[in-house]
Hints:
The protein is of the alpha/beta class. The chain has helices spanning 37-51, 76-87, 101-105, 123-136, 153-158, 202-207, 213-230, 248-256, and strands at 2-6, 12-16, 68-71, 93-97, 115-118, 143-146, 167-170, 185-188, 238-241, 264-267. It has a six-stranded parallel sheet, sandwiched between helices. Strands 1-2 form a two-stranded antiparallel ribbon. Strands 9-10 form a two-stranded parallel ribbon.
Amino acid sequence: xxxxxxxxDLEVDIVDSPIPVPKDDEVVTKVVVSASIPLAAMTxxxxxxxxxxxxxxxxxxxxxxxxxxIYGAASAVGAYVVKLARLSNIxxxxxxAGRATPFVEGLIDKSKGDVILDYREGDDKLVSAMKSVVxxxxxxxxxxxxxxxxxxxxxxxxxxLDQKTGQITLVLPRKDYSAIPSxxxxxxxxxxxxxxxxxxxxxxxxxxxxxxxxxFGYVMFRFFGRGLHEGWFRxxxxxxxxxxxxxxxxxxxxxxDGKASAVKYVFRLDETEGVERYRTN
Length: 281
């Protein structure tokens, strides 16, 4: 089989690797690389409902205003956060984006107070604009999802977030988040948390419940499937990168250079040079 090995300089080596031999209780599956709806959407769901505490589920939507900051709303994870928050009737959404603002415009509901703020205006103007929105919606914001988690994002958020009851979840692990005030509750969201309950959420810790992230994932993946089938839940915009696995290096460099905006890169494995020898039918 073909394997893509990413080097530190983002060059990618395509090598031949032996096909794994399954044990008696294992199977080998063929994976088609898609737009990664499950990864980004589940990351959004985990942060929104498992890491942040107190937000309503879509089948029990909010009946009162809940101001909510979404930093990086045009990213795949951020866009799914917007979509899920709307399903939960969480408003007003204070979305932070840049040149992909027109894309986010199609996700929000301005009639419920949702706004998009441009981080390119500078930190001071951005913080001032967020405070203005919060003042108009009750003067307090307790929830934030930081889908960027760098370049001053969480510092800006914490200048607006309530210092006593505020919660923020971030997406980059093993970072130094000491700039976040100790009074603000912060967590890190990773999609892998859905595969096991080693990293228990606060609900489990406080109640001793035997159900947790795995059960949440079981429910949410089926919820996504139903939404996709019925049309009220959609994927992220996609761009097919030519060359199969050989296109990974260029795509990674585009991501590093900030050239990808409101798009999910997709690779067709059957376009990889030499893959023909592994076809079985």
